[in-house]
Every structure is written in C-alpha cells, then in structure tokens.
Amino acid sequence: MHRPSRTPLLALLSILALAGCTGKQRIATETSIASVLIPTEQEKQLGLQVKEQLETKEHVQYLEDPAVNAYVQGVTGKILASAKKERPDVDWSVKVINDPKTVNAFATPGGFLYVYSGLLLAADDTAEVAGVLGHEAGHVVARHSARQMVNAMGLETVMGIALGKNPNGAAQLAAGLAGKGTLLAYGRADESEADEYGARYAAAAGYDPHGIATFFQKLEKGEGKQPGWTTYLSTHPATPDRIEKVDRYIAEHHLTGLGGRSGAELAKVKERLKAIPPPPAPPAQGAGK
C-alpha cells in the first residue's frame, strides 16, 4: 500500500503545531493534513462501510420509482457539476431512501449522497431540495469527515502515524468513528461552511440560492415539531443565526439563480411518492437465530 511522503506531511503538521492562527487558516491546514493522511481511496472505503451498515443493520430500502429517481438525479447532476470541479477525484453516488416519515439527507466520505423520500415530501420547491443536496455535497468537498478524524486523533497521534510508528492508525480510527456515526456529526463551523457550498452550488445550477435558507426557516418557525422533522433537526439545528449567515453570504457573493421558485416539478414527484407504499418493517433483532 502506498504511504504518503513524510516530508510534506511533517511540514503540514509543523504548520498545525505553530497554528495560533485564524480559524480559516486552521481549517485550511486541517484540510491539507486530512488530504494527505486520509486519501480519496480511504474516504471511499469509509463511505462503503457506512453504506453496508445502512443496508445490513439499518435495513434501509432504496426507492426504485423511475420518475422520482430521475428527478433527484437531475437536480443532483446539476449540483455535482460544481462539486466535481473542486473534487474531481470523487466518484459520486446518489440514492433515494424510501422512508416518507423521515426528513433527512446526508453524505458520507467518498461521495455517497442519500436523501429520504420524507425530505422530498417536506420541501416546498426544487430550490430547497437543491440547497440541501448542495449542502451535503459540500461536506464531502470540504473533507469534513476527514478533518474530524484529524481532530479526533490529536496532533501527537497524527505525528506518530506520519513517522511510521502506527501506520494503520488512521484506518483503525476511521473504522471506529464510522461505526459510532461520528463521521456524520458535524460542528457549527462545518455546518456553516456546508451552507455556503449549498447556496453556491444551487446558484451555479440555476436554482434560487435562498432555497436552503427558506428550508431552515420552515424548521425554525416550528414546523420541525412535526413527526419526522426531528431527524434533520438533530443534525442540522435551524438557528436564526445560521439562517442570517447564509443569507449574508448570498448577498455578499451576489449569488442568483436563473430559475424561479416554482414547485410544479416537485409537486408531481410528491404525488408519485404518496402513491408508493412505505417499506416493510425491518426484521426484529434476533429473528432467525
């Protein structure tokens, strides 16, 4: 297995050790270290671990409806056109999970994107869907999971791996974090950065970049108390400060989408979703033993 060169890695670690620097400088440094310690192939393996867990332990059911999948693939394709420019090394995959009661979407390392049918039913228009998908793609592009691993390791452990004292340390920690779901638990700074990606990617795809803000506003106003919303709220707190930040980012960067805020296309998808039966209940634990 190819190991990263120690010289550039140690140089990056030295920068981090000296970093009594700004937040943005530290983020840039952590991202650089993560890209060396946790290369693209290892990110993909992490994503495959999570995928296996979803399918074998959580028994998720993917939606097979051609029209719904075509809609999601169409929106995601436009979003990923921007993401691929910044992470051309990632092979993206998009799945729709058949669960109308769960409002959620997430992305795992390696470019695996998942959106629940419940989120499609909850959104008002395609601009909101695009904003959410752009946000999730942003987590992958910014290497947020890999950066979490760097933080979780600590500088001393990272330097030990770089010096060859524990060459399998990164892989071992990654497996542990993936099993605990820690790879998908992002902090405020990561969520805010992903919001910016979501707005930027949506605008570049021709959608109103305010879609992600209006989706959060819906949650912030209390609609999140409805059954199913709690899943998304638990990982994406819809605070007024967060909404204000993304609105300010859109204004400062003069982001505009060419399309309006029509929900006609999504309305057709919702009608199809309402006619699709929910997935069967997963097998009870211990069944068949």
UniProtKB/TrEMBL annotation:
Signal peptide positions on this chain? 1-19
Q: Which CDD domains match?
A: M48C_bepA_like
Q: Which cofactor does it need?
A: Zn(2+)
- Which Gene Ontology BP annotations are present? proteolysis involved in protein catabolic process
Q: Name one GO molecular function term.
A: metalloendopeptidase activity
Q: How is the cofactor bound?
A: Binds 1 zinc ion per subunit.
What is this protein identified as? Peptidase M48 Ste24p
State the coiled-coil residue ranges: none
Swiss-Prot/TrEMBL keywords: Hydrolase, Metal-binding, Metalloprotease, Protease, Signal, Zinc
Q: Name one Pfam family in it.
A: Peptidase_M48
- InterPro entries from the xrefs? Mito/Outer_Membr_Metalloprot, Peptidase_M48
Any one cellular component term from GO for this entry? membrane
Similarity annotation: Belongs to the peptidase M48 family.
The record places domain Peptidase M48 at: 67-248
